[in-house]
Design goal:
The chain is of the alpha/beta class. The chain contains 6 helices and 6 strands. The radius of gyration is 16 Å and the shape is globular. The two termini are 26 Å apart. Bound molecules: guanosine-5'-triphosphate (GTP) and magnesium ion.
Length: 208
Amino acid sequence: MASGTAEPEHVFKFLLVGDSGVGKSSLLLRFATGNFEEDQQATIGVDFKSRVVDVGGKRVKLTVWDTAGQERFRTLTSSYYRGAHGIVYVFDVTRRETFESLGEIWMHEVSMYSTIEDSIKMVVANKTDLGSQREVGTQECVEFAKKHGCLYVETSAKGNVAVEQAFEELVIKCLDTPALLGAPGSGKGVGLGGAGGQAGGAASSCCS
Ligand code: GTP
Ligand code: MG
C-alpha cells in the first residue's frame, strides 16, 4: 500500500478490540509509523491513528481506533464502536485465554455497541514470533474465524509480519461491500471529528 497527496476517495473507521496486552497498540504503531516498542504501555481509554493508503487503485483514509483491553475502561471504550466499518479482534497466540475472550467478551461487546451491521470483521492472531510458546493452533483459529464470519490473519507486530496485509485485506473487503461505501463517514471529504491522540476522556462521535 502506497500513499501520496491526492484526496482520499473513502474514509473508513477501523476498531481494534481484544484483551489487554495482546498487542493492539503495537499493531497500530507498526501500521501507522513502522515502529515497535518493546515496552509499549497499556492504553488508557482510547487512542487513534490515521493513515492514507492506496488499495486497488483507490485512495483510502483510515482512522484506526485502539481501545484499552483492561476491563475498567470498557464502558468508555464501547462508545467508540459506533460507525466502525472494520472490527479487528486481536488475541495473543501465547495466551489461550485471550483467544477465548474473543467469543466470550469481545464479540458480545461488538454485537451490543457497533452500529454498522455490514461491518467487516477480522480475527488477528498476534505474537507469532513467539512460536515455541504458542497455545492456539492455526487450524482452530481458522475454524473459529470462519464460524463467526471473520477474515483471519496471523501477525507479529514485533517482527513486522503481515501487519500491512491485515489492514489491506480489511480495506479490500470494505471496498467490496457496497453497503459500507454509502455508510456515514465513508465518503470523500467527510470530517473525521473528535480529538486526536490519547483520548481517555469523554466519548467522541467520530465518523458515526
Ligand atoms: P492494552 O492497551 O492494555 O489493551 O494492550 P495492547 O493490546 O495494546 O498491547 P500492547 O500493544 O501494549 O502490547 C503488550 C506487550 O506485548 C508490549 O510489551 C509489546 O511490546 C508486546 N508485543 C506486542 N506485539 C508483539 C508481538 O508481535 N510479539 C512480541 N513478542 N511481543 C509483542
Ligand atoms: Mg493498547
